[in-house]
């Protein structure tokens, strides 16, 4: 039986999808999130959030506030869903930070933004905003800690959901001949430094990463 390692603990429906395919699954959290006790200014009307963790930090800060004039710009369907569940209006959702940056530059050139980020964020979005003279302030609202764990075995496939997850895994393990399944191109760019056996999800969601792995191994059996 082929066995796959997930570098993020999966939800029950995600696990079920995987185990119904006949593949073995090992899972752990390669990363740990620490929310920071920082002040988030609320005088802005335009907010950029690129992850569910930044949304969680934001929601804690805006409890019992009037957010009717807030306009939110985000990356990822799950981020958008969490924002909308909490009554926030999403003006634009993009699948990648580069795509969101281009939209802001084109459609909101004269607006000022508050960008809520994590300490491991990529430079893509701030670099594009700075180069195009978009006014923004960045507040780091959470830290990502690497949680290294050694596995005394090889896996047929490894599921990666961020460049940090790859760095965490490699602190105590090697890639070997595993096929790497990556949630998007940014994660794949990091993976390419260590392997040629890479499959990129065609939608940047956890579910799609699982589907790619299932399809790959059921096709190659």
From TrEMBL:
Residues in Tetrapyrrole biosynthesis uroporphyrinogen III synthase domain copies: 31-208
A molecular function GO annotation: uroporphyrinogen-III synthase activity
GO biological process: uroporphyrinogen III biosynthetic process
Top-level lineage group: Bacteria
Annotated InterPro entries: 4pyrrol_syn_uPrphyn_synt_sf, 4pyrrol_synth_uPrphyn_synth, UROS/Hem4
GO cellular component annotations of the record: cytosol
Family annotation (PANTHER family): UROPORPHYRINOGEN III SYNTHASE, UROPORPHYRINOGEN-III SYNTHASE
Protein name per UniProt: Uroporphyrinogen-III synthase
């Amino acid at each position: 039986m082929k066995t796959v390692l997930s570098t993020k603990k999966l939800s029950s429906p995600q696990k079920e999808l995987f185990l119904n395919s006949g593949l073995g699954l090992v899972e752990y959290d390669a990363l740990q999130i620490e929310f920071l006790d920082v002040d988030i200014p609320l005088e802005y009307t335009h907010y950029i959030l690129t992850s569910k963790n930044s949304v969680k930090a934001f929601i804690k800060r805006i409890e019992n506030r009037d957010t009717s004039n807030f306009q939110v710009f985000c990356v990822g369907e799950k981020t958008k869903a969490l924002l909308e569940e909490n009554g926030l209006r999403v003006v634009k959702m993009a699948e990648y930070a580069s795509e969101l940056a281009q939209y802001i530059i084109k459609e909101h050139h004269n607006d000022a933004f508050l960008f809520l980020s994590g300490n491991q964020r990529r430079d893509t979005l701030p670099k594009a905003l700075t180069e195009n003279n978009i006014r923004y302030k960045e507040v780091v609202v959470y830290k990502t800690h690497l949680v290294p764990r050694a596995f005394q075995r090889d896996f047929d496939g490894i599921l990666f959901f961020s460049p940090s997850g790859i760095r965490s895994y490699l602190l105590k393990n090697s890639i070997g001949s595993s096929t790497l399944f990556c949630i998007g191109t940014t994660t794949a760019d990091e993976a390419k430094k260590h392997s040629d056996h890479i499959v990129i999800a065609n939608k940047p969601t956890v579910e799609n990463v699982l589907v790619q792995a299932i399809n790959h191994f059921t096709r190659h059996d």
